[in-house]
Amino acid sequence: MRVKMDGTRNGFGRALERLGSDERVITHGADITSSIRMSDFYTKHPERKNRFFNMGIAEANMALVASGLAKEGKIVFIGSYGVFVTGRNWDQLRTTVCYNNFNVKIADAHGGISVGADGATHQALEEISNMYYLPNMHIAVPCDSIETEKATQAIALVAGPGVIRYARAATPLVTTKDTPYQFGVANVIRYRGEEQNFIEAFEIKLSTDYKLENEDLSIIACGPMVPEAMRATYILKEEYGIETRILDVHTVKPIDKKALIKAADEVGIIVTAEEHQVGGFGNIVAGVIGQGKRYNSPLLMDMIGVPDKFGESGAPWELMKVFGLTGEHIAERAKRLCDRSSWQSS
């Protein structure tokens, strides 16, 4: 099946350009602008250049300046490599931005292993956890460039701090402008049969609109792992007859607790998938399920992610294979879990 590709950073850029029509929106870069699409804010609109500030390689200062502007009623986007814009300034984000619930929006660019050859020092694999446990923080981890565009606009409208995690490398387009999107509500994705175009083989609904279809397995994923989960779903159905419910958790905080608990109760076999240190996203999901799931219903769970290692240099597609994050790897792990369930119930 054919698939179109586009960088999620392009979706961020399109949204930021549109948001720039609001005079309250201010943007900051940390010695990097065009690569993370922060420059889309002003490239076609030179009159906005006085609302962009290049702060240099000084992420802590950038967060503090943004906080001051937010205190005066501005909506401030700060951006850099995810590993720097959520790491070097973590104390400022915690104590100045989040504690005061300021309207500072973090462009967590080049997230995960999408920066490939830049290597371990530039690959953000910890920031979902680092940001999730900050009070008042909101987190969007969209799956493609179209969903990134929607998520960026949503984060801008939410009162308080927010993070948008997006990638440098091109990834598959698996949603459209007409795909439903609601901040804080996961999407359910179901494979409906092979089509000429990959995207047309799937149906997507808001979790609030979805009814049980007696699936064998649920894959709960975020970011670029959603397209990989879709590939895994195709393999599982066509090769093994396994029906899969995918949850696209594009909003990690506030997370869609009802959708997660419903998947655990109705399906009972869960695989989480993240392009991140294993358990960052997975443990968030497990915690929600552990608190809300019915005690008398069985559950098997596996978590897929980077296995407690730093990143490496290489093409993004190579690193996806190295760390076991591809659709083939997900399908293999999911099949093993389903087999285990059958063995235990026999």
Automatic annotation (TrEMBL):
<protein>
    <submittedName>
        <fullName>Transketolase family protein</fullName>
    </submittedName>
</protein>
<dbReference type="InterPro" id="IPR029061">
    <property type="entry name" value="THDP-binding"/>
</dbReference>
<comment type="similarity">
    <text>Belongs to the transketolase family.</text>
</comment>
<dbReference type="InterPro" id="IPR009014">
    <property type="entry name" value="Transketo_C/PFOR_II"/>
</dbReference>
<keyword id="KW-0786">Thiamine pyrophosphate</keyword>
<dbReference type="InterPro" id="IPR033248">
    <property type="entry name" value="Transketolase_C"/>
</dbReference>
<dbReference type="InterPro" id="IPR051157">
    <property type="entry name" value="PDH/Transketolase"/>
</dbReference>
<feature type="domain" description="Transketolase-like pyrimidine-binding">
    <location>
        <begin position="6"/>
        <end position="173"/>
    </location>
</feature>
<dbReference type="InterPro" id="IPR005475">
    <property type="entry name" value="Transketolase-like_Pyr-bd"/>
</dbReference>
<dbReference type="Pfam" id="PF02779">
    <property type="entry name" value="Transket_pyr"/>
</dbReference>
<dbReference type="Pfam" id="PF02780">
    <property type="entry name" value="Transketolase_C"/>
</dbReference>
